[in-house]
Please model this.
Amino acid sequence: MGKNLIQQARGKGGPTYRAPSFKYKAKVSYPQNAVEGEIIDFIKCRGHSSPLAKIKYDSGEESFVIAAEGVKVGDVVKLGNKAELSTANTLFLKDIPVGTSVFNIESQPGDGGKFVRSGGCFAKVMSKKDTEIVIMLPSKKQKIFHPKCRATIGVTAGSGRKDKPFMKAGRKYHYMKARNKLYPRVCGISMNAVDHPHGTSRSSKKGHPTIAPRNAPPGRKVGKIRPRRTGMKR
Model:
C-alpha cells in the first residue's frame, strides 16, 4: 500500500512547511509620513537572513528596516524626495539614477518592500521611463516597477553569510529547522517505488521519461518540467 509523497504534502498545512511567524521579532516596512530618522539598534530576526535596523523617526514613530551594508548605530537615514543619493537612504525609483544598486524594493507603492531582501543581495536600475522603471534583480531577471515605488540605496547587510561552510549535517539541520524548511532533500531514485515515481530498488533506471506532463497532479509532477515547444524554431 502506498502513501502520500513529499510533493503531495506541501501546502497541506503540516508543521514541516508552516512558517514559525510567532517567533519573528519584527516586521520590516517603510514609514508613511517620516522624513528623517536615526538608527538606534540592530536585531537578528530568524525570519530574515539580514540584520534589521531599528530606526526612530522625526515623526515619533519607530520601525524596523533591513540594514544596509556599512551602517552603524547613530547614523541618520532619510526618506522621500529630499533624501540624498547615499547608502541606507530611501528614495522613489523615479529619483534614483540608472546603474545605482538598491534593495528592499516595493512591489506596489506603499507596501513596505517585497523584493531583494536577503543578506548580501542588491538589484540595479537598468532604465527609466515616465511610466515604468526597469530593474535587474539578483537572478539577472529584469522586472518593471512603478516609478512611485520606493527602494533603499546600497547593498543588504550580511553578505558573508554564505562564505562560512556548515561543515557537518547537524548544523545544516538546525539551520533549516529554524525556518521550517524540508531537510534533507532526498533524490527520487534513492526512494522506494511506493514513495516516489522514480523510486525503485531495481538499479537506478527510471522506467519512464523524466519530463512530467504539464497537467500532472502534484504527486506526479516530478523530474523535469515539460517544455512549451521542442525542435528547431522555423
User: Anything to note?
Assistant: The CA atoms of residues 214 and 229 lie 12 Å apart.
